[in-house]
Amino acid sequence: MVAGGLCLCGLLRLLCSLLLPALFLSGILCICLVVLLWGVRLWLQRKKQLSSAGRDGKRPLLVAFFHPYCNAGGGGERVLWCAIRTLQKKYRNVTCVVYTGDRDATGEEIVEGAFRRFNIKLIHPVKFVFLEKRFLVEASLYPHFTLLGQSLGSVFLGWEALFKCVPDIYIDSMGYAFTIPLFKYLGGCRVGCYVHYPTISTDMLSVVRNQDTRFNNAAFITSSPLFSKFKLVYYYFFAFMYGLVGSCSDVVMVNSSWTLNHILSLWRTGACTSVVYPPCDVQTFLDIPLEVEKSTSEYSIVSIGQFRPEKDHPLQIRAFAKLLKEKRVGQQPSLKLILIGGCRNQQDEERVNKLKCLCEELDVSDDVMFRINIPFEELKRHLAEATIGLHTMWNEHFGIGVVECMAAGTVILAHNSGGPKLDIVVPHEGRVTGFLAEDEDSYAETMAFIFSLSPEKRLVIRENARRSVHRFSDQHFEETFLLSVEPLFK
User: Fold this and answer.
1) Whole-angstrom distance, CA of residue 376 vs CA of residue 429
2) 298, 333 in Cβ contact below 8 A?
3) Highest mean pLDDT among 231-235, 273-277, 308-312
């Protein structure tokens, strides 16, 4: 007993004797780290000062956009190119830089692709900084702890970007919030971000807490209380870190009321946060004549959206198959579902192949058409001929495709959540602008209801929808975007 007490006392004395050296060593290491980081900052500032001057002898203001998938062709890319065009219109001594991992295309090809897909023509050339380590933010690299893996990977990718080009103003336009402190504190940049979709949200926490099965919450986790609790702790930790890095932003722009609510709860940056609705090329679609539908042998249902898992294309196919199977449309003309979207990488292409297999399984292959990375004019033609615009993403941050469908004159059927529910498919002057649904049955039933309406009644809904989308125009985006980023240029 006495011997045990002596051993314990000896152990405590040993720990006490090591405490001061450990604290001293930790202090020295912290000081070295601070000195190292400060040295890196000074070196980066020196590198920026040595950059080339413009034609007038002054060094242009470098405004860099972090957008590793700038050639993807989705709604986020439309925001990017409209933002660049807006800055080029407003500021003369500004050079826009795009950090991208699209090394399979030249800068000229990327700009040409933006014009071909979005009808956006830039005023001045753009400087592209091609990144080699984009694979670090690929979800496929992290089968587990994907959010954390991609976020940490974005820090390394951001360091590569900062090493290659040190800007004056940095704007994260793709949702890689963990790069913001890097550019602010090491790069000495004024930093802003445009948030399309929070990396983590209170809704995601609720899904795990309630053990709901979703595309980002596997069935083996929902079936295990232990795994669900572990994932909940992981999500809360990540939400804390996400809020910490996001709060470093000087300017925060969000694309909808839904995103605003989540960002304010996580980042607590109310003083510098504003809603900037994404630019939708409504005028181009408003040029499509709007008139009572003529008798036809085929009605088309069009979906616009990148082939990503959260877009839930399988729900569209299953609802469409259910509509055909139950013959809800009676003796009406045949129906065609047209899925239009962009493929960013091999994973997206594999996803499309799985969707085609689902069509074969449900025996609707002849009635479903896939149109991938199509030109803008073809997109416009499909929308002009469509009766219904279909959208199925749960908690879509905004929904540019929804707005485009409404502007083109389709009757929109969107998911009863997120941006479509709060900002887009809402009554205009007290009149119906479209419809909302949540599951396979409600989508099939609502599509059947829309087809049961007379062409004249559908025309009234289409006209209401068109009148409501002017608040999402390019012009409105330019005004609100410039107002939001103005503090970065002072």
Assistant:
1) 31
2) yes
3) 273-277
Tell me if 281 sits within 8 A of 321, measured CB to CB: no
DSSP state of 394: T
Task: Report pLDDT for 329.
Answer: 47
Helix/strand number for the chain, H first, E second = 18, 13
The CA distance from 360 to 327, in Å, is 19
Report the residue count for the chain.
Answer: 490
Helix (H, G, I), strand (E, B) or coil at 253: strand
Determine the Cα–Cα distance for residues 473 and 478; give it in Å rounded to an integer.
9
Helix or strand run (H / E) with residue 221: helix 219-222
Surface-to-core class of residue 11, CB atoms within 10 Å of its CB (0-12 exposed, 13-18 middle, 19+ buried) = exposed
Element (H, E) at 109: helix 107-118
414 and 424 Cβ atoms separated by less than 8 Å: yes
Q: Which of 312, 315, 305, 466 is nearest to 401 (CA)?
A: 305
The DSSP bridge partners found for residue 217 are 214
Report residue 157: phi and psi, to 5°: -65, -40
Query: 301: how many CB neighbours lie within 10 A of its CB?
Result: 26
pLDDT tens digits along 327-347: 644 456 789 999 998 887 888
Shortest CA distance to 397 belongs to which of 479, 481, 316, 278?
278
pLDDT, position 213: 52
What pLDDT was estimated at residue 362?
94
